């Protein structure tokens, strides 16, 4: 992915952390892996079924609630909704308000939700003085969903200034429509679009399938089952995806910052590193950097972030993630796209739905019971 240094600089200034120097990969290698006892979870407040969050203007943290409301986290907890689309959102199955994001200049705010027909929808609002301008709302992208599960729904702006959208394989079980390996559909994919480049959006000219008449030009990566949460490493620009497994294996996928896209993560021929129901491994399969089976308590990976904050030095450079069923906060130590260690931080947040990275790069944990917690030093 092509990094736009102008966008990165603007983000740093608007987050009011311009003086924070990002730790380099070589410096991270000298930091001891964080172990149990390094961190605690500080419960800050509760929300109504929180699903996602985003760093907002002036160092704020914005929280999405599944029914369709967005609220801002402050010293006194969550404020009144700054946006409410609950009359337009369905929450049956795995549906709801599933993702929120600001562009890298905090001039536009995006929501990802399922409408009353269950269609995955990404809408845009202009932002002025840190406030959403409701009358500027427009729909950027829609995708019909054949089933009520595996919607994906996470959205993030990459360091290149483009909007990335994660969509599941369409649902049911076992990918009955074979969407994961079908480049003719947006389902089971990670998309990359330029929402300001056209109406309703433009496809970046360097997307990997833009010149393929048999493929959707929006596709950045494919072979995904339900990429519920993904993120970009603020220090390197690398991409990490937590892709929820079918029955046996949970996986975390990775791509370097200089990737040209087009990665095939294998679903539904593969589940992690394993052939799925007699499938043959694609020749271009990109295996996960980490997988774990369901022999323990885990059942649904919740992808997180590479920690780049200052408060927990031993955690710097490690990928923080969890599992909806297990709830234990864990980390991966990585070097050049290879996992060199796995750690258990010794804290559990319950049914972990999502992580949020603040402007100061500290991490928040959202749980299905409504708890919003922050990862703090012990």
**Helical residue percent band:** under 10%
Reported for the largest beta sheet, the result is: 5 strands, antiparallel
Radius of gyration, in Å, reads 19 Å
Low-confidence stretches: 2-13, 16-31
**Global outline:** globular
Structure commentary:
The chain has 378 residues and is mainly beta. It contains two helices and 27 strands. The chain has helices at 5-14, 25-28; strands at residues 39-46, 50-55, 61-65, 69-74, 77-78, 83-84, 97-102, 108-114, 120-128, 131-143, 155-157, 163-167, 189-193, 219-222, 229-232, 239-243, 249-255, 270-271, 274-275, 290-293, 301-306, 319-323, 328-335, 338-348, 352-357, 363-367, 371-377. The strands form seven sheets. Strands 2, 3, 4, 5 and 6 form a five-stranded antiparallel sheet that branches. A four-stranded antiparallel sheet has the order 1-27-26-25, with no helix packed on it. The protein has a four-stranded antiparallel sheet with strand order 7-8-9-10, with no helix packed on it. The longest helix has 10 residues, at 5-14. The protein is globular. The relative contact order is 0.16. Residues 2-13 and 16-31 have low confidence and may be disordered.
């Amino acid at each position: 992915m092509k990094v736009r240094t102008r966008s990165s600089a603007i983000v740093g200034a608007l987050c009011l952390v311009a003086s924070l120097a990002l730790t380099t990969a070589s410096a991270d290698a000298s930091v001891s892996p964080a172990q149990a006892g390094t961190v605690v979870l500080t419960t800050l407040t509760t929300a109504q079924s929180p699903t996602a969050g985003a760093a907002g203007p002036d160092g704020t943290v914005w929280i999405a609630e599944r029914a369709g409301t967005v609220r801002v986290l402050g010293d006194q907890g969550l404020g009144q909704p700054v946006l409410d689309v609950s009359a337009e959102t369905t929450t049956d199955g795995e549906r709801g308000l599933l993702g929120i994001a600001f562009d890298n200049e905090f001039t536009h705010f995006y929501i990802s939700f399922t409408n009353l027909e269950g269609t995955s929808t990404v809408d845009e609002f202009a932002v002025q003085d840190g406030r959403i301008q409701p009358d500027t709302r427009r729909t950027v992208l829609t995708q019909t969903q054949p089933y009520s599960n595996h919607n994906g729904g996470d959205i993030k702006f990459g360091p290149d200034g483009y909007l990335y959208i994660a969509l599941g394989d369409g649902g049911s079980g076992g990918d009955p429509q074979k969407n994961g390996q079908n480049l003719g559909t947006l389902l089971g994919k990670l998309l990359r679009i330029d929402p300001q480049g056209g109406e309703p959006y433009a496809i970046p000219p360097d997307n990997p399938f833009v010149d393929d008449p048999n493929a959707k030009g929006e596709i950045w990566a494919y072979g995904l089952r339900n990429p519920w949460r993904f993120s970009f490493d603020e220090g390197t620009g690398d991409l990490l995806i937590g892709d929820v497994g079918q029955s046996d294996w949970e996986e975390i996928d990775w791509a370097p910052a200089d990737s040209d896209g087009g990665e095939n993560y294998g679903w539904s021929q593969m589940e992690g590193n394993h052939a799925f129901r007699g499938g043959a491994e694609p020749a271009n399969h990109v295996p996960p950097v980490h997988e774990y089976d369901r022999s323990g308590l885990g059942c649904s990976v919740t992808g997180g972030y590479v920690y780049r904050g200052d408060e927990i030095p031993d955690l710097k450079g490690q990928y923080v993630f969890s599992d909806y069923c297990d709830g234990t906060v864990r980390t991966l130590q990585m070097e050049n796209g290879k996992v060199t260690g796995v750690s258990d931080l010794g804290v559990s947040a319950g049914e972990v739905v999502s992580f949020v990275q603040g402007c100061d790069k500290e991490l928040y944990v959202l749980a299905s019971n409504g708890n919003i917690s922050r990862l703090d030093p012990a």
